[in-house]
Amino acid sequence: MLTSETVTRDILTHHLTAFGNNDLDGIMKDYTAESEVLTPEGPLKGLAAIRKFFEDFFIAIPTGSAFEMKQLTVTGNVAYIAWASESAVAKIPMGTDTFFLEGDKIRFHTVADYRLAE
Questions:
Q1: Which residues 6+ apart lie within 8 Å of 29 measured at CB?
Q2: Looking at residue 1, what DSSP letter applies?
Q3: Residue 27 near residue 16 (C-beta atoms within 8 A)
Q4: CA separation for the pair 46, 34 (Å, rounded)
Q5: How high is the mean pLDDT in each 10-residue block of the chain (118 residues)?
Q6: How far lies 94's CA from each of 54, 80, 83, in Å?
Q7: How many Cβ atoms are within 10 Å of 4's Cβ, its own excluded?
Q8: How confident is the model at residue 36, as a pLDDT?
Q9: DSSP secondary structure string, 45-111?
Q10: How far is CA 27 from CA 54, 93, 115, in A?
Q11: 15 burial type by CB count under 10 A (0-12 exposed, 13-18 middle, 19+ buried)
């Protein structure tokens, strides 16, 4: 039997792999029309807004960028990551994401990073 923690780890692994590959269609499979990404600029609701968010993020962190996972914690249906990344476009010494799952989809996703332009 799959536990909520196992499902959360599986979805997180899929999400991080798709993100590292800049696989926009793969990332979007983790969300639904009801999903929300909560950012310092405000909430992004629905698939179109979330897709645009990741399109923009891939400009700062294209495939092949340096990426360091500083922390990964999964508890039940919640996953938290702290990370750092560097590309030709941006240096991000600290970023965090928290994922709240409903079933096998991300329902709420918080994201924030400290970004230095290169």
A1: 14, 18
A2: -
A3: no
A4: 6
A5: 87 96 97 97 97 95 94 97 95 97 96 87
A6: 18, 13, 6
A7: 15
A8: 98
A9: ESHHHHHHHHHHHHHHS-TT-EEEEEEEEEETTEEEEEEEEE-SSEEEEEEEEEEEEETTEEEEEEE
A10: 9, 23, 22
A11: buried
- Tokens 């999400």, located at residue: 15
**Residues β-bridged to residue 85:** 67, 92
**Domain definitions of the chain by residue range:** 4-117
Q: What is the pLDDT of residue 3?
A: 82
Token code pair at residue 102: 């409903």
Residue reference for tokens 């914690």: 73
The domain over range 4-117 is classified in CATH as 3.10.450.50: yes
Q: What is the pTM assigned to this prediction? A: 0.93
pLDDT at residue number 1: 61
Q: What angle do CA 43, 45, 51 make, to 5 degrees?
A: 105
